[in-house]
Amino acid sequence: MTLRSHLITLVLVAVLPLLLFSAIVVGLAADSERDATERGLRATGRAVSSAVDHTLDNAIGALEVLATSELLDGGDLPGFHKVAARALEGQRGWLSVAVVDRAGRQVLNTLRPTGAELPPPADARTVAAVLARRLPIVSDLIASDLPERAHVVVAVPVLRGRALRGALLTALDAHDLARVLEAQQLPHQWAAAIVDGHGVVVARVPEPQRFVGQPATAAYVALTARGDSGAARMPGLDGVRRHTVFNRLENAGWTVYLAIPTVTMDAGFRRSLVTLIGGGLVFLAAGIALAVVVGRRLTAPIVALSTAAVRLGAGQLPDTPPGSRVAEVAALGGALTDAARRRREIEGEREELLARAEASRERAALLAEASRLLASSLDYEATLERLARLLVPALADLSVVDVVGDDGEIRRVAAVHADPAKDEAARELARRFPPDRRGNHPVARALRSGRPELTGEISAETLETIAPDPAHRELAQAMAYASYLVVPLIARERTLGALSLVSAGSGRRYTAVDVPLAEDIARRAAVAIDNARLYRQSEARLRAAEAVAEIGGFLNQALDPEVVGRRIAESVRGLLGLGTSLFCRVDPYTLEMTIVAGAGAPIPGFEPGTRLPAGSATVGLAVRERRPVTTPDLLSDPRITLTREQRAMLEGLPYRSVLAVPLLSHERVIGVLALGDRRGRLFRQEEVLLAQGFAEQAALALENARLYAETRDANRAKDEFLATLSHELRTPLTAMLGWVRMLQSGTLDAATAERALQVIDRNTKLQAQLIDDLLDVSRIVTGKLSLELRAVDVGVVVEAAVDAVTPGALAKSVTLERRIDAAAGPVWGDSHRLQQVVWNLLSNAIKFTGSGGRVGVTVDREDPHVVVRVADTGQGIAPEFLPFIFDRFRQADSTTTRAHGGLGLGLAIVHYLVTLHRGTVSAESEGPDRGATFTVRVPLAPLRPTAHAGADAATGVDRRPPLAGIRVLVVDDDADTRDLVTAVLGQSGAEVLTAASAEEALDTLARARPDVLVSDLSMPGDDGYALLERVRALGLDRDGRVPAIALTAFARAEDRARALAVGFAVHVPKPVAWRGWRRAEAQPFAGSARISPKTRDATRRASRANGAPT
After folding, report:
1. Sign of the torsion angle spanned by Cα atoms 744, 748, 749, 751
2. Exposed/middle/buried for residue 950 (C-beta within 10 Å: 0-12, 13-18, 19+)
3. pLDDT tens-digit profile of 401-421?
4. For a tag on the chain, would you pick the N or C end, based on fewer CB atoms within 10 A?
5. 686/628 same-domain check
6. 1053 neighbors 1069 (Cβ within 8 angstroms)
7. At what angle do helices 1024-1034 and 1053-1062 cross, to 10 degrees?
8. In the prediction, which pLDDT does 148 show?
């Protein structure tokens, strides 16, 4: 065999296997390339689907945030229209925002002004679906006459708990979805499309305007029906056959398609195949032709190509094959190099898409974990600590959470570093240098503005803003701060704090891309903080209610003001967690305050027992204004008055924030509760209301204690009064009985007997006055005392009272002075009762004024009153007794060694009578032995009546009417009274018959037929009422012509009314002033037939003169 044959054989043997191997390699490479391309295509499709899902997620999330607005709860559509308009400006691709009610009616649309008439929703099916399912809904494409107006509707329900209020909708521009596809930067000739649930193209790139709104091909629809994802080769709407992958979206019934032309996908294989066949033929021909010449030169390129194929199969970039003059061999080497490079590029793109998808998954997982942490506990401080630890190192090297306290100050609750070795240093830095809310710190700026603060690179100037203190700056530099992002924590339109993310040593730099995720976390954290605070407030209210109930039960039994004050101060301080508290008693007249009790840290100069001037400190301001007063710093509050000593004591104390609450009882301030805490604290409204509740309980307890003390004092005063009454009754009775016994003995001479009668007369009048006072008090207590009102000249009344007390004043050598303004004017009143008022005051003044003293009375006109003043130079009134001077049964001296007698009722009667005349009476005294002045003010009469000089004048008749020829039957079971009445009537000329009982009286009536019947009402057996009824029934009174007089000790108004109703003509109470007896006797006697006409006329005149009816 020749060399050529051998060479040819060698070439054939060498080339044919090489060609076969190359074909296999090309086939494998093509298959691998197609597989890699399809995997990249699937990964890219998932990334594109995630991007579209994220866009819809953002729209749904934004709408759900808007749906929580309180403006929708209150029906404030204009306010919500503004909020929605601002949200619309911040959302790219949103065309409008609309609100529908539960019935599906459109009530608001940002495309129209508030209040405009709105048509039904364009996509009624989507509205019905979201209202029925109560879940977010994304509609299919809503086409329009203009392609640029095609859009989809995103709808979310408006829920309040389980209650459906309506739905919130936005129209999302379909071109915005096309921009999402464009943002994926797909390779040339790749196509992506979004198809809705009805098979209509929502968006497509390239050529979005051409295909939006067109139905997808039947092949696409059939491919989608097989599952949520898949791949196939099919022609598109433009007729180009493509390799297509699809993925179903999570948030909508849409499908995202990603396609690459099959020509492009198979181009490498065809190119390699053509190259292989052509090169093989050329190489075979050349080998046969030049086998001998190029045999050896072919060996190196073939070996190099084999090596390159092996590296390519291993996924490595092959070395550049050696140059060859054989074009096919060189082309094959270049093709292998290009295929390997392209494979690496596709692998890089796939890795990038996978990295993006992984980052999105990690962000979703981070948000889910953050939500779980925030919802796991109502202790938001511990929860925020765990949240800060979760965010490092995922989002930051240093995570810090600040909250705004009740006092408005910034408080750091968490500071966590990714490096455990620096964690404690970060905490120490946060504790030592908290941001000043009024400063230029990024946290303070974010809290004030409500917007994120972002710095990509912290410069020296920025670091100085963050850390103005050199020590702070040095520590910050040691921590290697490089970049920060601060987002505010906002819930219910209130900024509750801030979340700070700091890059320190990791090389991370924050950009605007990081803001949405940080804001999402901050929003969830703010909701958790707000919920926790609401829960704490609810718990605090519950504890407060329980404490108020408990303290109420205790105070209902407490009667000691000091115990009440101490318990209230301790309870309120403990419940509100304050530093100190004080409880003060207030004098309702001077408003001077006395510290009764305190709790918590003691305050020098404000110990229990300390007296505070009226109006001083915060408590004084609360007392003066009669309402709660709060101040964050009492030393800098211009409303608060402090003495120099008090200011000096308070300057060094931390408790300068004060809440003072007055205790009101019957419109009077009786105490004040003061609560103190650190300077700058602002008391919340619920804390003020709680303190007010405790103050009301304390006021009620103090009022109960006061009433108890008054009741106890009143009982003691009544006991003392009864002892005094016994003394005042027994003393004159002793003298009267003693002289009566001596008169009965008949051993007294005429002078001594006259003196005895004077003593008996004086003591009898004294007894009568005591009884009158007691009866007046009884009428006052029962409300039975009445006035006979008419125009009264006060001057005349005072003159009469002065004349009445003049003998007593002369007997004590007391000078009695008077000054009466004749033009003072009349008052509308009862002259008898007004004279009683003046007589009591004058008698009282004379009683307590020693020999040589002076008593003066003046009458003046001080519009619109007439003023009567009674002043004396006597023993005066002690200051501690002055407030009780008009109390019943109260006497300045009720001991057994007292110098003056009496029951202590005169001034109480004066006070009541003046009050009944719509006037006032007051007492003044500078103290013991300094005299006293009583001032009576009575309103002037509305009209000055014409004076009738003789209307109230005495008749001048001072003798008893002659009763000669009159037979009187006196019935009384008391023998002394019968004898006395018999003697008085006998001196008047009457014939007197007596009876000791009703039965005896009936016998006498049957025998004697008297002209007048005088009967007691209270008798054994039949009383006076029964006697008169039997007399009338038996006809023993000459058919009712015998008048009857009731002479009784029952002197109440109801007793008089009953007597008159039964048939008595006159009711005369015991004891009887016999000088005025003619009033009673003149009335019935004037009608007696046995009286001569002359006597009858005289008695009638006397009766009329004395005001008795004839």
Report:
1. negative
2. exposed
3. 998 876 677 888 888 888 888
4. N
5. yes
6. no
7. 10
8. 61
Output the CA–CA distances (angstroms, integers) from residue 351 to 34, 169, 339, 344, in the order listed: 17, 38, 18, 10
The per-residue pLDDT for range 349-381, each reduced to its tens digit, is: 888 888 777 777 877 777 787 778 777 776 777
Q: Tokens at residue 578, please?
A: 């304050």
Pairing mode of beta strands 1066-1069, 1044-1048: parallel
Q: For residues 762 and 791, is the Cβ–Cβ distance under 8 A?
A: no
Q: 646: which 2 tokens?
A: 């008090």
- pLDDT score recorded for residue 1063: 85
DSSP letter for each residue of 1050-1068? --SHHHHHHHHHHT-SEEE
For the segment 129-144, the average pLDDT, to the nearest whole number, is 84
CA–CA dist 177, 533 (Å, integer): 41
Under the phi-then-psi rule, with left for phi > 0, alpha for psi from -120 to 50, and beta for the rest, what region is 989?
left
Q: How far is CA 206 from the centre of its chain?
A: 62
Place of tokens 């603060």: 453
- Residues 386, 293: one domain? no
Question: CA quadruple 443, 447, 453, 459: dihedral positive or negative?
Answer: negative
What is the predicted pLDDT for the residue at 165? 87
pLDDT tens digits, residue range 613-626?
Answer: 887 788 888 888 88
Of 695, 712, 729, which closes a domain? Answer: 712
**pLDDT of residue 871 exceeding 90:** yes
Instruction: For 218-254, write each residue's pLDDT tens digit.
Output: 777 777 777 778 887 878 777 778 788 888 887 777 8
Angle between helices 561-576 and 685-745 in degrees, nearest 10: 170
Residue 123 predicted with pLDDT over 60:
yes
Q: How many CB atoms lie within 10 A of CB 469?
A: 12
Q: Would you say 561 and 569 are in contact if contact means Cβ atoms under 8 Å apart? A: no
> What is the dihedral angle through the alpha carbons of 434, 437, 440, 446, rounded to the nearest 10 degrees?
100
DSSP letter (8 states) at residue 186? P
Would you state the pLDDT for residue 882? Answer: 86
Angle among Cα 964, 965, 969 to the nearest 5 degrees reads 105
Token pair in block for residue 121: 């929703």
At residue 714, the 3 state secondary structure works out as helix
pLDDT band at 938 (very low <50, low <70, confident <90, very high): very high
Assigned domain for 435 exists: yes
Note whether 563 and 706 are within 8 A (CB).
no
Phi, psi (deg, nearest 5) at residue 1020 = -65, 150
Nearest to 843 by CA among 786, 771, 766, 788: 766
Domain final residue pick, 681, 712, 743: 712
Q: Are 927 and 992 within one domain?
A: no
Residue with tokens 């299919």: 140
Tally the residues of the chain. Answer: 1110
Task: Name the token pair of 327.
Answer: 């074009």
For residue 994, what is the enclosing H or E element? Answer: strand 991-995
Which pLDDT band, with edges at 50, 70 and 90, does 525 fall under?
confident
Residue 460, token pair as written in the block = 């020296």
Does a cis peptide bond (omega within 30 degrees of 0) precede residue 608? no
Instruction: Give the strands of the sheet with 163-173, arranged side by side.
Output: 106-109, 94-101, 163-173, 151-160, 137-138
Residue 623 within any structural domain of the chain = yes
Tell which residue, 716, 738, 832, 713, has the closest CA to residue 1076: 832
d(CA 1040, CA 1061): 14
User: In one letter, which amino acid is 624?
Assistant: R
Question: What pTM value is reported for the model?
Answer: 0.36
Distance between CA atoms of residues 1040 and 1055, nearest Å: 22
What mean pLDDT value characterizes the chain?
78
Range(s) of the domain holding residue 338? 3-27+284-349
Specify the number of domains making up the chain: 5
Same domain assignment for residues 608 and 496? no
Residue 857: pLDDT band (50, 70, 90) is very high
DSSP string, 470-499: HHHHHHHHHHT--EEEEEEEEETTEEEEEE
